Amino acid sequence: MSTKRKKDITIRSATAEYLIFVSTIGDQPGSVELRYEEPQRTLAYVTEDEKSSLMDEDLVMVAVAGDRDKMQWSFNRQWYNIPLERIADSPWMKAKYLLLYAKGDLVVGNLCKIVRSRHDVWTEEKLKDAGYPGMPHSKSYFMIRIHKPDSTDPSLRDKKFNIRNIPIIYWGKRNMPFFLVKLKDLQIED
In percent, how much of the chain has pLDDT > 90? Predict the structure, then answer.
C-alpha cells in the first residue's frame, strides 16, 4: 500500500500566489508534484476619505534651493542637490514630496514627488558640467531625483503652501538646508 505525504508551502510574490505541493509517492522517493493554483482575488479599493487621510500623513521635505535660478535648474533637470555631509543621519528617504523654495519666499506652490530610486552622488565638477548656476560650495552632493511639479497629484498640484508658518516640524530645524513636515501640517494659502 502506497502512502502519500504532502507538505504545503506558500510562496507570495507581488503578482501571484503559488501553492506548491511536494509529495513523495510510495516507493518513488524524490518524486515531486507541482501544481499552480489561481490566487484568490478580492476587491481592494481606497475611498476618497481614506486617500486624503493617507496623504495627510505623507512627509514633505521642505528645502531651500538658494535662489530662483538654482530652483529652476532643479525643476528642469529633475534633480535636487544637498551637500553630502548634510544628508547623513537624516530620514530624508521617508519623504514622499519635495517643496522647494528660494531664500526670501514665504509661500510656494511647486510640490514635487520624490522618485523612489535612481538617486546619485555627484562631485562639484559634475554639478558644474550639468549647467548648475553659480558656484557649488561642497566637494560632493547627494542628488535626489524628483518628478516635475506638474506631475504631482492633481489635488495638490495647484496648492500654495506657507513655508514660514509651519506649526510642527517632523524632523530638522528651519535653519537647516531641509526639514521634514507632515503634509497636514503645511498651511494652504488662498
Answer: 56
Whether 148 and 179 have beta carbons less than 8 Å apart is answered as no
- If we measure between CA atoms, which residue out of 165, 176, 179 comes closest to residue 98? 179
CATH 3.10.590 in the chain, residues? 49-189
Note the CATH number of domain 49-189.
Answer: 3.10.590
- Classify the phi-psi angles of 135: left when phi > 0, otherwise alpha if psi is within -120 to 50, otherwise beta: beta
Average pLDDT for 19-31: 46
Cβ distance 85 to 146 under 8 Å?
Answer: no
How far is the first Cα of the chain from the last one, in angstroms, to the nearest whole number? 81
Handedness of CA 114, 111, 158, 131 (dihedral sign): negative
Residue whose entry in the numeric block shows the C-alpha cell 489561481: 38
- Which among 150, 131, 137, 125 is positioned nearest to 79, based on CA atoms? 131
pLDDT (tens digit, 9 = 90+) per residue, 64-75?
A: 998 999 999 999
